[in-house]
Amino acid sequence: MASNIMRPAFAYTVVYVKDVAKSVEFYSRAFGHNVRRLDESHRWGELESGQTTIAFTPRHQHETDDLTGKVQATRSDRERTPIEVCFCYPDVDAAFKRAVENGAVAVSEPEDKEWGQKVGYVRDIDGIVVRIGSHVK
């Protein structure tokens, strides 16, 4: 039997953005999350999202660019980042509408998928694809 030391909890998803304060405020308004923290330097922000934290930090930081490499941004709407943020809602249509009304760019309207989930896609203020969906039936 594996020990608890080898059973990590998923703690954070870090999203690299142009402006941390604007992104935290956008996600709070567009997707309904409460702001947990926005540090005074505006270089780190967190949203309440259940057991896992959604965190935001600037794309470029001298502490990490030289250590782990620079974050690559998309160059057009025909490209997407190698991460997709997904949120599940009981009313996908209402959540999609709220996101768009608060500045998200509609990519595809919500539709029923063959795997039993209703899904719509938007882009956030940094062009990151956000999936708005239901739980799989």
Task: Considering the chains and any ligands shown, give keywords for the structure.
single chain, 137 residues, alpha/beta, 2,3-Dihydroxybiphenyl 1,2-Dioxygenase, domain 1, 2 domains, 4-stranded mixed sheet, 21% helix, globular
Describe the protein.
- The chain is of the alpha/beta class.
- The chain has 2 domains: 8-69, 2,3-Dihydroxybiphenyl 1,2-Dioxygenase, domain 1, CATH 3.10.180.10; 80-136, 2,3-Dihydroxybiphenyl 1,2-Dioxygenase, domain 1, CATH 3.10.180.10.
- The chain contains 3 helices and 8 strands.
- The strands form 2 sheets. The chain has a 4-stranded mixed β-sheet with strand order 1-4-3-2, covered by helices on one side. Strands 5-8-7-6 form a 4-stranded mixed β-sheet, covered by helices on one side.
- A hairpin with a 5-residue loop joins strand 6 and strand 7.
- The longest helix is centred in the N-terminal third of the chain and has 12 residues, at 20-31.
- The protein is globular and about 45 Å long.
- 23% of the residues are buried.
- This is VOC domain-containing protein.
The biggest beta sheet, please?
A: 4 strands, mixed
**Sheet/helix structural class:** alpha/beta
Q: Say which CATH homologous superfamily of the largest domain is assigned.
A: 2,3-Dihydroxybiphenyl 1,2-Dioxygenase, domain 1
Count structural domains.
2
Please tell me the CATH architecture of the largest domain by its name: Roll
Please report the first level of CATH classification, the CATH class of the largest domain: Alpha Beta
- Computed Rg: 16 Å
Work out the number of β strands. Answer: 8
Give the count of helical stretches: 3
| Shape by Cα distribution | globular
Order of helices and strands: EHEEEHEHEEE
CATH-defined fold name of the largest domain: 2,3-Dihydroxybiphenyl 1,2-Dioxygenase, domain 1
Please state how the strands of the largest beta sheet are arranged side by side.
Answer: 1-4-3-2
The share of residues in helices is: 10-25%
Pfam families: Glyoxalase
Protein name: VOC domain-containing protein
Domain VOC: 9-135
Organism: Brassica carinata
